[in-house]
Write a structure and sequence with these properties.
Rossmann fold, 6-stranded parallel β-sheet, globular
Length: about 550
């Protein structure tokens, strides 16, 4: 147990460091000055940004990449409210995010002080815990307990604010950290699931982000290999089995509804991304990181809740009879190979107009196996999800089920800090670029080179094309054609270029990867191209 004495900021930083935090993302505000002072004294890295939304997305991205708490420190009032979209994104995805907010001083509370706002009820619906540390002796224990709550399955964001007069005053704390314990699954539930998988003729695993957050990726590989089950991955589940593993599939999801007899969904909710659990005639099993997380809105053949690594190792340990799945895997592999061959024509490009698949055709051959790919956009990033493969876990970041744009610059800076030796590629729709492109300034100031690729079709494509289909016209869906986002980046201290000719894509990407500054490749794409979407979005 460590005893810390100083002001409230010293205690706050010491508590967060004990919980595993190594950096803070922030936008400067007087209500939280002591936290900065504590960080300087204790050598915690401070990354200051241009908007609190970016700070909080960067903290969320750090938690996604490292599986330890990400920290955003925001000032009172608008600093806190500017963070709420990012907090909500973390809530929907189950990310261990800690947001530490300033708060107007208690001594003048109720008299109309600067940025006087009770943040706690605003954050309560989108956090696991939302609290005020009212006294100096509360700061350390409240932050330690909140960080432990964030890391406890099902993981999620927490919020703590501290009044200004409290954070500036003397404080002390005795700090003792212990990581949350895993929830042991019911062995009978695990055995029931194993029996179903072993007895199915055409089973499949669908894997989501909680397998990554639960450090269960190796157990997934053991279970899939032992039972001979094909694996499909989404979100942060991508890469938990390498894309080139014989049991990994991505192009033939439609066959699950047509031909699978059992679908086991692991570590992701049965939400709109999975048609709310409707897989045609297949029976469905749900494995969640807590018993409470098991879906209740559809009938399940079996379920298990708790430590996903333990559940998957329980499946791998099955020693009973097993129906061979070789024919089913061969059927999927043949279909996957055919689908990938069909893709190649679009990925190769051709002609004078650039379609988004051609961008990914040029990009894929330049990506290393551990490249971190960040997607922030609609149609343009949907193509990335289809065509960009993940070979290692924790290498794919997208907005997640909440679908909030503006994540990109924060995620990219988090990736560059967490993976300093890896390629970091940020894929932006031109609509998404408008949310956070000013934070290229942050990348430049903190020497965080990132490759950025903008799919610039001059429209909100995800809205434009469906609206035209519904009404025969569109409104509020146009952007300025051929906007020079690369010139914005150059003005902020980075570099970049605009690409109009498909033949120039490869050389432009080579220059971007070779640059030692943030580099934006502004690709003018076909405004009439629409991603062939089949998902139920509501």
């Amino acid at each position: 147990m460590e005893t810390i004495e100083g002001h409230g900021g010293d205690v706050a930083v010491a508590a967060l460091r004990a919980a595993g935090v190594e950096e803070m993302f922030t936008l400067s505000g007087g209500h939280v000055f002591p936290v900065y002072d504590g960080a300087v004294r204790q050598k915690m890295r401070i990354v200051d940004v241009r908007h609190e939304q970016t700070a909080t997305f960067a903290a969320e991205g750090t938690a996604k990449l490292t599986r330890r708490p990400g920290l955003a420190v925001v000032t009172a009032g608008p600093g806190v409210t500017n963070s709420i979209s990012a907090v909500t994104s973390a809530y929907f995805t189950g990310v261990p995010l800690v947001v530490l907010g300033g708060r107007a001083p208690t001594v003048n509370w109720g008299r109309g002080g600067l940025q006087e706002l009770d943040h706690v009820p605003l954050l309560a619906p989108v956090t696991k815990s939302s609290r005020t540390a009212q006294a100096g002796e509360d700061i350390g224990p409240v932050l330690l307990e909140s960080a432990r709550t964030a890391l406890s399955p099902h993981r999620g964001p927490v919020f703590v604010d501290v009044p200004m007069d409290t954070i500036f005053s003397p404080a002390s704390a005795s700090l003792s950290w212990s990581a949350p314990e895993a929830i042991e699954p019911d062995p009978a539930d695990v055995e029931a699931v194993a029996r179903l998988v072993a007895g199915a003729a055409r089973p499949a695993f669908i894997v989501g982000g909680d397998v990554w957050f639960g450090r269960a990726e190796e157990a997934l590989g053991r279970a899939a290999a032992a039972l001979g089950v094909p694996v499909f991955m989404n979100g942060m589940g991508r890469g938990c089995l390498p894309a080139d593993d014989p049991l990994a599939f991505s192009r033939v999801r439609s066959l699950l509804r047509k031909e699978a007899d059992l679908v086991v969904v692991i570590g992701t909710p049965l939400d709109f991304r999975l048609a709310f659990g409707d897989f045609g005639a297949a029976t469905v099993v749900h494995l969640a990181d807590t018993p409470a997380g098991v879906a209740g809105h559809r009938e399940l053949a079996a379920s298990a809740g708790g430590d996903l690594a333990a559940i998957l190792d329980g499946l791998a340990a099955w020693t009973g009879d097993r129906v061979p799945h070789d024919d089913w895997i061969t059927r999927l592999r043949d279909a996957e190979t055919a689908a990938r061959a069909k893709d190649e024509a679009g990925l190769a490009g051709g002609g004078s107009v650039i379609r988004p698949p051609a961008v990914y055709g040029a990009l894929r051959s330049r990506l290393e196996r551990d490249a971190v790919v960040v997607g922030d956009g609609g149609d343009f990033v949907s193509y990335a999800g289809k065509y960009v493969d993940s070979y290692q876990p924790g290498c794919w970041l997208d907005p997640g089920p909440y679908g909030c744009l503006g994540t990109g610059l924060g995620y990219a800076m988090a990736a560059r800090l967490a993976r300093p030796s890896s390629q970091v590629v940020l894929l932006l729709g031109d609509g998404a670029a408008g949310f956070s492109l000013m934070d290229v300034d942050t990348l430049v100031r903190h020497d965080l080179p990132v490759v950025m690729v903008v799919g610039n079709n001059g429209a909100w494509g995800l809205e434009k094309h469906p609206m035209r289909m519904l009404y025969g016209y569109d409104v509020a869906a146009e952007l300025r054609p051929e906007t020079r986002y690369d010139e914005v980046v150059r003005a902020l201290g980075g570099a970049g270029e605009t690409v109009r000719d498909p033949a120039d894509l490869g050389p432009a990407l080579d220059r971007a990867f070779a640059a030692d500054v943030p580099y934006l490749v502004n690709v003018l794409t076909d405004p009439d191209d629409a991603y062939p979407r089949t998902s139920v979005l509501a």
